[in-house]
Amino acid sequence: MSADYVLETRGLTKEFRGFTAVDDVNLQVQEGHIHALIGPNGAGKTTVFNLLTKFLPPTRGEILYRGKPITGMKSNEIARLGLVRSFQISAVFAHMTALENVRVALQRKLGTSFHFWKSEKTLDHLNERAMELLEEVGLREYADILTVEMPYGRKRALEVATTLALDPTMMLLDEPTQGMGAEDVDRIVELIRRVSKGRTVLMVEHNLSVVSRLCDRITVLARGSVLAEGDYDSVSRNPLVKEAYMGSEAAEEEGAQA
Ligand SMILES: Nc1ncnc2c1ncn2[C@@H]1O[C@H](COP(=O)(O)OP(=O)(O)OP(=O)(O)O)[C@@H](O)[C@H]1O
């Protein structure tokens, strides 16, 4: 029964002028899980994410959130249902402090049609909540630092705080450890573990060590289709998965030599 899954896709397909980037994908994400979407370069992971959060309309197929079709909804409507995608760093304002960025996210949740937050009391309340969220992601001491001056790993943590500001029950994380050194990776792994309590997470992640440490279930995409699914051990032992990864590495090497 679909209600067992927080997020489900049925026959999800995206064609770009005859090229099928996502091909009949049936994804099922269970409540409370940290679920990874992995696969070699060009497998269709980003396109699936863009379909889920409505940056792109699907060519065919259906997306269900808590058993309810959300295929035709706008991304802000989906966010209001509790399904929130963590934004890229470019979406946090570089010349605002960490606290101001979280406050803006909280205001966005309140909506622009109400101006009651302009009262001082509401502003105080927003500041308090923003501090709590900074605390939750380990950024209390960065509250008054301009985002542009924060180290890369801390900016990603701030991005998580602005996502939490929208009160998600399910978070979509887009390569959360991309471009990070080992120390930052460890910190973000711990952070994801912490904020995933009581929530469901779907993440695209290239770093397989991160996936093995965090994820309950893994879906492997290759050439737009689901190649394998299961826990880390079963997926990593699957010969089809090994072949898909090795094939893509060989292709990359070939490309590099060309
Ligand atoms: N707007 C577009 N127009 C045409 N083709 C596209 C478009 N977006 C993606 N594609 C193609 O769809 C395929 C899947 O791309 P996608 O970015 O989803 O893969 P990915 O798994 O996220 O890859 P990576 O790990 O490299 O980010 C690729 O072959 C890509 O070239």
TrEMBL record:
<dbReference type="InterPro" id="IPR051120">
    <property type="entry name" value="ABC_AA/LPS_Transport"/>
</dbReference>
<dbReference type="GO" id="GO:0005886">
    <property type="term" value="C:plasma membrane"/>
</dbReference>
<dbReference type="InterPro" id="IPR003439">
    <property type="entry name" value="ABC_transporter-like_ATP-bd"/>
</dbReference>
<dbReference type="GO" id="GO:0016887">
    <property type="term" value="F:ATP hydrolysis activity"/>
</dbReference>
<keyword id="KW-0067">ATP-binding</keyword>
<keyword id="KW-0813">Transport</keyword>
<dbReference type="InterPro" id="IPR027417">
    <property type="entry name" value="P-loop_NTPase"/>
</dbReference>
<dbReference type="GO" id="GO:0005524">
    <property type="term" value="F:ATP binding"/>
</dbReference>
<keyword id="KW-0547">Nucleotide-binding</keyword>
<dbReference type="Pfam" id="PF12399">
    <property type="entry name" value="BCA_ABC_TP_C"/>
</dbReference>
<feature type="domain" description="ABC transporter">
    <location>
        <begin position="7"/>
        <end position="248"/>
    </location>
</feature>
<dbReference type="InterPro" id="IPR032823">
    <property type="entry name" value="BCA_ABC_TP_C"/>
</dbReference>
<dbReference type="InterPro" id="IPR003593">
    <property type="entry name" value="AAA+_ATPase"/>
</dbReference>
<protein>
    <submittedName>
        <fullName>ABC transporter ATP-binding protein</fullName>
    </submittedName>
</protein>
<dbReference type="Pfam" id="PF00005">
    <property type="entry name" value="ABC_tran"/>
</dbReference>
